[in-house]
Amino acid sequence: MVQLPDTLLDAVHERLLDGLGEAGSSQEIAGRVIAYLRNTAETTVSVEPDGTTFVITGDIPAMWLRDSAAQLTPLLRLVVGEVGSAEDRAGLVSLLSGLLRRHWQYIVIDPYANAFNRHPDGSSWDGDETDRDNPWAWERKFELDSLSYGPDLAWRVWKATGDTSWADQEFLPAARAILETVRTEQHHEERSPYRFRRPGVPAQDTLARDGLGGLTEPTGLVWAGFRPSDDTCELGYNIPGNHFLALALERLGDLLEHVAGEADDAAEARRLSAEIRQALDEHGQIDGPEGERIWAYEVDGRGNHVFLDDANVPSLMALPYLDCSDAADPLYRATRAAVLSRANPYYFAGLYLEGVGSPHTPKDHVWPIAKNIEGLTSGDDAEKRRILEQLMRTDGGTGMMHEGVHVDDPTIFTREWFSWSNSMFCELALDLAGIHRTQR
Asked: For the whole prediction, is pTM greater than 0.90?
């Protein structure tokens, strides 16, 4: 595993205290961030013999494309914020570049898989019946964020540093695999080779219609079998996932043009992005609980929709965090208000916590990831600090963030070791201290 230099961690601690001020909780918040950065590096990150970076999700020994990028995003904040020495920051960029090169390898191997093994040993979460035998895939659930996090992270690394070491020989094949998969899944019924069946499990863990999923009509949106939670999409077009994919394709267009020198592929990425955004405007909006216009969570192109929000990112609440919306946009503000209300069936409130949970975890469990996203999209520093303090009080005495925490009893939680959740706490704390995701 990887050890972050003490010089870097000392610099992080100093910048945090400078940014957080003299409030009583500042020392504890800063201490947590250092502990979580160290824990993520030392327990989940490894540099492989080929120089790529492999990142396990925590208590599962596989690498999710989504989780791995999110787990290392706090490191990019340190680079953007010029925290630590130039040498220390160069080391962080090397880890991020290595992660991206690993992403490209996996996407070329199988653009439909969501989680991968370190080696092609056939390890898996559970037995699946798909139309492709892939010993690299820990799980072959097709989720839009698997194709989005890599291009988005590569664009942000490039913009922040000018570094293009991530653009190796696998980048262009991976980019073209993304474009081909997007084109195919805009017409899932007619063109898709993807099927997913898992016998003997609840409906949220498999796809209906012999693995094809619920019926959809083409709209320009991109179909997915599963949500960022790894649960089945109730309807085929996940709206926050399509928002993030549209942004990732736009940014992929920049990378294809300016880094890879592939103008035709860049134009295709931008065309697909524009097509998805138009479809979002035409098919993704619904009437909210007070008659106001809000974003749906999923639609099927046949007139059906579902409103909820899930703690997992991409989510509706996370749209400004992902750069998919302005936090002041009236449509987003109305959507966010509905998400943080009983209109969202996965909004829970109790004695210790209130916020967004997930159908992936039991009732009355709020996710720290969602609480951090709530803070990161609030624009209110006092609210950000309140959330950080609340999360520290509800860690169940473990000192770590969890997947879901019971609103009335913080000693009841899911996943004692969940690195993505720790990283999101770091992001909110760094944001409160003025260390941002992008240059300002």
From this structure: yes
